[in-house]
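Researcher: Go.
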Amino acid sequence: MSSDIAIVVPIYNEEHIVKEFFTNLKKTRPNDTIIAVDDASTDASSKILNDLSGIYLLTHELNLGQGAALQTGIVFARTLNLKYAVTIDSDGQHNPNEIELFEKTIKKYNCDIVLGSRFLGNTINMSKTKRILLKLSIFFTMLTTGIKLTDSHNGFRIIDISNQNFNITQNRMSHASEIIEMIQKYNLTYKEVPCTVVYNDYTVQKGQKVSNIINILLEIFFNRISS
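Model: Structure:
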């Protein structure tokens, strides 16, 4: 029996983990629609994905960034008349078993978006520097949007995509801040739920670097003062 959920997974050069990740995801969420968006990978990711059954594979000819990949997946999910989209990273940082909590929460409270929080949940092997910068980003997000969260740059979330106002225009990593700005702009209802974020050698290499967090904060700041 199919569900009303699409799981949108952005992919960029994940050949070492992509088969294991999607095999596990399909076993964990067999009734959901799984949408992989390959953002112009230069390795064998696309070929591996193409050989897997039970998923939709969308590809970008040019590398546009994670925000653009998520928007591509969300637009496609709407064409399938699905109500919800889960966004989750493919590098192993997030646990697909936790999707159930996101689903239960958005349906119980009938809200527009449910955001994952590593600070309500659990972090494994996160550096002190990253923790400090993420905490600063939470404070900065509250100052610029008025939205008080415990985690402002977590890629694990579920969205009611029947709300046509929800469209990501920031192609790269600053899309996470744009989503919070949409909560403010369109008065979206939201909840936070605890989730686990794992940092190991692979996820640190593939994930959001400390310098990226600083660049995101600067981009948000300059966008704010120029708007």
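Model: The chain has one domain: 5-226.
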